UniProtKB/TrEMBL annotation:
Protein name: Triosephosphate isomerase
GO biological process: gluconeogenesis; glyceraldehyde-3-phosphate biosynthetic process; glycerol catabolic process; glycolytic process
Gene that specifies this protein: tpiA
UniProt-annotated location(s): Cytoplasm
Alphabetized PROSITE patterns for the sequence: TIM_1 (PS00171), TIM_2 (PS51440)
Pfam family, one: TIM
Residues the record lists as binding substrate: N7, W8, K9, G170, S201
Catalysed transformations (reactions): D-glyceraldehyde 3-phosphate = dihydroxyacetone phosphate
Transmembrane helix recorded as keyword: no
Annotated keywords: Cytoplasm, Gluconeogenesis, Glycolysis, Isomerase
Assembly: Homodimer.
Length: 241
């Protein structure tokens, strides 16, 4: 089944979350053939978890810490997330890598911790514009996969990968569906049977073009997931695929 995930990043207070989910539940009530995931900020997970408890919409976190507990000021453990109903965790988003110095080694520990706790990581990979211009896209993606998944085998059905070219994130300039397909194929040849999502300026207008590619197994949506109507349109674009 295709996965359509909304990454809200640092947006929406708990009351705005409540308002969004009230509308969104109604808009996607009849969706049956698509897995839907919302990833609000930590502070909204509690209210979102309560509201989504008996629904077909899953709840994800945007980050986690790999340790179980302890003196890690400002961090959030997987047990804390699990108790709120979280079943997915976005790991290694480019904003965490490049704005907050997250390394492949930390990302690897987070992926391992998620799998040990029974939470499903969405590992994000993707190249900078300089890498792309230098023809290094596949090399960069391969290295991120190798390091991020170091020591792990048999990942089919336990993990999803999101290909998010950094130059396409929040810019209004997505990759072409053909570019995405090319990298997704490479990822599957490298890893075997995993779902690969595309992320980077996805909108209700272009969602179907991506989803019609044979190796695009879903979408990780930022800006266009902040409005319940536009996110619902993207979810519905996936229903027929
Ligand atoms: O980073 C993203 C999702 O994780 C993509 O963000 P945009 O959809 O705003 O480009």
């Amino acid at each position: 089944m295709k996965l359509i995930a909304g990454n809200w990043k640092m947006n929406k207070t708990p009351s705005q979350t409540r308002e969004y989910i009230t509308k969104f539940l109604e808009l996607v009530r009849d969706v049956k053939n698509t897995e839907i995931l919302l990833c609000p900020p930590f502070t909204s997970l509690c209210v979102a978890g309560e509201m989504l408890k008996d629904s077909h919409i899953k709840l994800g976190a945007q980050n986690c810490h790999y340790e179980e507990k302890g003196a890690f000021t400002g961090e959030i453990s997987l047990s804390m997330l699990k108790e709120l109903g979280v079943s997915y965790v976005i790991v290694g988003h480019s904003e965490r890598r490049w704005l907050f110095g997250e390394t492949d080694e930390m990302i690897n520990k987070k992926v391992i911790a998620c799998l040990e706790k029974g939470l499903r990581p969405i590992l994000c990979v993707g190249e900078k514009i300089e890498d792309r211009n230098a023809g290094m896209t596949l090399k960069v993606v391969e290295s991120q996969l190798k390091l991020g998944l170091s020591g792990l085998e048999d990942l089919a059905g336990k993990i999803d990968i999101a290909y998010e070219p950094i130059w396409a994130i929040g810019t209004g300039t997505p990759a072409t569906p053909e570019d995405a397909q090319f990298v997704h194929r490479f990822i599957k040849e490298f890893l075997g049977d995993v779902r690969v999502l595309y992320g980077g300026s996805v909108s209700p207008k272009n969602a179907k073009d991506f989803l019609s590619m044979p190796d695009v197994d879903g979408l990780l949506v930022g800006t266009a997931s902040l409005d319940p109507e536009s996110f619902a349109q993207i979810v519905k674009a996936s229903e027929g695929e």
